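Fold it.
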Amino acid sequence: MAIATRINQTKYQVFRWRHELAVPQKLALALGVAALTGLLAQVRIPLPWSPVPVTGQTFAVLLAGVLLGKYWGGISLGMYAGLGVAGLPWFAGGSSGLGYLAGPTGGYIIGFILASLFVGHFTDTYLRSRSFVSMLAIMLFANFILIYGPGLLQLGLWANLVKGQPTSFAALLGMGAIPFIAGDVTKAILAAAIARGITPKSAYNGEVDKGKWESWRLP
């Protein structure tokens, strides 16, 4: 029991520390998470029927909001996108430049920013979001709506306008969504389990549901 109490206190202290950091320190952490995203982007499996590869970067994206909190998860992925456009070769396959962001997978990178903002908002705002079930639901929505939405939109525009190959919605799903569902669900489950394990179940940020769930167990 004493060990569990110490672990819970440590989690609270770490997240409270993260919340109270000065802006330069938060920028440094954001850059670190951006670098982690770039590293995982190199875990890349090409698919012969699609210009969109399987990568590991969505795992970092889903955890960015948890680790950095409201706004700063999105800022870290904005740094990832901006520095990649500026020439740092940490997009998938060591790519970089504006041409990559304007290519078939650029919409997913825009979605990364939206997804990490979304996850970070819930993590810092609601105690109840820090359960495994709640976090998994948040991450699945972030992945399949906020990442896939702009990703598929840009992929469709690229296929139609750049490649000159009119693509049906079913074909678009076959290129940019269906092959990745199992892997993305697995990554979301793992990320939600990690988030459940590392987040404190007490308020460190003036959460809006503070004091409402004392008798409610967070599974």
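The CA atoms of residues 55 and 216 lie 37 Å apart.
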